[in-house]
Structures are given as C-alpha cells and as structure tokens.
Amino acid sequence: MHAAFPRVIAWMSFIQQREVEMREREMDDPLVLYGNRFSSRLLLGTSRYESPRQLTDAIGVADPAMLTVSLRRQLSASKESGQSFWDLLRETGRVILPNTAGCLSAREAVQTACMARELFQTKVIKLEVIGDEVSLQPDPFGLVEAASELVKLGFQVLPYCTEDWVLCRRLMNAGCEVLMPWAAPIGTGQGPRNPRALRELRERAPEIPLIIDAGIGLPSHACQVMEWGFDAVLINTAVSRAIDPVRMASAFASAIKAGRAAFVAGPMSVQEEAVSSTPEIGRPFTSGSIRICTSGTC
Amino acid sequence: MFVIVNGDNHPLPEPPTLSALLARLSPLGPFAVAHNEEFVPRGAYDACRISPGDRVDVVHPTAGG
Asked: N or C: which end of chain B has fewer CB within 10 A?
C-alpha cells in the first residue's frame, strides 16, 4: 500500500464529515413556506431548456426546493408539455409550484389557479397577473384582487410582485404568507434594479418569507440578495439559457448557499475610513521602541 | 353547429355535454378544463352542458418559470 493512502482516506473522511455537517446546518436553517420546511433556498423554473435530459441534470445539481410549472393548451410534439413532461416532473420527486403565467386579469388568474390545483393536486400557486405586456410588470390592482379571492378559496398564494411596499403590505393583508418581489423584469437578467427599495422591503417586512423572482442573471446577483436577507431565489432563464445550463445551475446553488451563510454570519458594518487590519504595534522601521516583556510581570 | 376548443371549431357533440366532447377529443395525458373561461371540476363534466359558440379550453402541464 502506498504510504500516503491512509492519509487520503482520512482526508476523504474529513471531507465527508464536513459535508454532513453542512447538510445538518442547512436543515437547522430551513426555508419555511406555509409551514413546509425546505433545506434548499433555490426554486428552479423548468422552461426553455434544450432537452428534458438537460432539465433533469440541472435539477439534479441545483437541488431545488420547488420546481415551477405552468398550464397551456397542448402543442403537438412539444417536449416541454404533456405526458412526458408530467412523467419527468413526477420522477424528480420535487414539490411542484404551478404558476398563472401570462394571465392579464384577476379572473383569468383565479380560473387558471383552479385548473392548476386540480391538475397538480396542490394548493400552492405562484400568482402572476401581468399589467404590462412590454415589461411584464405585475398588475398591482389585479394581483391584490386575485390574491384575496384565492386565499378565500383555500390557496396558499405566492404572488409575483414588485418591491413596492404598499403593494406588499396589501398582499400580506389579503392573506399571502410569502411574497415574490422581482429583481428586474422577467427574463432580462439585469439583476436587482432597485437595491435600496428591495432592502427597505426586507427591513419593513422582516418576518415574511421573501423570494426574489425574475430578473436575476448571475450567481452574484443571487448571492447579493441572499446577503441582504432575502429567503430564497427563483431562477429560470439565467440557468436554462446559459451556454452550459447544468454548470450554471450548480453555480447558482453555491451562490445562494454562500449568500445565505453570509447573511446568517452577520456581515461587518461598512466604515467611512480605512482601518488597518494588521496591528500597528511592532511595525519595524518606526522611530519608537517597544519593550518586550519576557518575565510575564509587565 | 360548433364549439370552439382551444381556439379551433369542433362539431357540437351529442349529447351536448362537456364529458361527451372530451370523450371525442381524447386529450393525451393529464389535463384540466375551462368552459367559457371558467374552471370545470372533473366531477362536473357530465353536468356541464355546452352550446354552439361556447369556448372550451383543455390545458396540460407545461414548463414554466
């Protein structure tokens, strides 16, 4: 046997132990949505992948808490819908979060949510009511109307909203226990457009889970919002339209974990003036002298 | 006489119920239905009567963000 072999085994054992510890730490800090606990803080969209295999591989490395899906009229030969897509979803074993994407009124959104509830056998719904077809900006009025109705119907509503505080407060008053503010318009990849307002939202609503949805383009964007204390991030296009979506899914998973760990660790406060991190005492070539105590009495 | 299914004309079935229409359409895989833009629960297909010009949407699970 090679002399270094036991050391390699010991090192691998150490790594495995650390991985177990990290897993346990994640379970100690779960994402809680409507009473359901998740170890992952990444939600993954299922759209615009090159192939079902690519989507499956991305799910495998991203380890998402939930997968978002939608409802559409059946298109012939589509790989992203129908029975084969259904089978793929079931095989992942992940929690499914249907959306009401594309709905332009509260009524459309409520009816779509009802169809999703029957089809996916779930009462969670990612509520989208679009108010502008250019920016895909949420319609705040339709959103509150639809959320109020869906809560009455027994849904657990996760509304896709802006960072507007009054809108968010209205949605909470309507019974939403989770909010999904955008970072930027859907599919743009611009990253947080209005960091100050997002951070103010986090400060004004410290208890409610806030999931950043839409507009994230890079793992650094995701890490940034997690460092600000947001609870999770929903990613789709930034993964599926990357040149290597599976590798990008892994990068996002790492970034979200890093951002969360940094938030929990408590970042230092920003200083106006430079502060040397190396002690000034004992620096050579200075004019003063320092007496070194060797007796232990000074 | 026609009903509009997913935007296309289809002959009105006999009897004129949603369940008769769906039996003729035989949608592939899991689906849910709206009649004149209102969700129809699975257990109500027999009782849901359809008239000429009515709109029926049959939707399936699909990828989404």
From this structure: N
Task: Report CA-CA distances (Å) from A142 to A16, A103, A146, A149.
Answer: 50, 10, 6, 11
pLDDT digit string (tens) for A101-135? Answer: 999 999 999 999 999 999 999 999 999 999 999 99
Q: Give the span between the Cα atoms of A49 and B51, in whole angstroms.
A: 40
Q: Give me the residue from B29, B37, B38 closest to A86, CB to CB.
A: B29
Query: Alpha carbon A260 to chain centroid distance?
Result: 10
Q: Which residues of B touch A107 (CB under 8 A)?
A: 37
In a mutagenesis test of the B interface, which of A49, A53, A69, A72 is the best target, namely the one with the most B β-carbons within 10 Å? A72
Question: How do B32-35 and A36-38 pair as beta strands?
Answer: unpaired
User: Least CB-CB distance to B59: which of A73, A86, A237?
Assistant: A73
pTM, rounded to two decimals: 0.86
Chain Cα centroid distance, residue B17: 9
Helix ranges (DSSP H) in B1-65: 18-25
Residues of A in contact with B38 (CB under 8 A): 111
Q: Is the Cβ of B42 closer than 8 Å to some Cβ of chain A?
A: yes
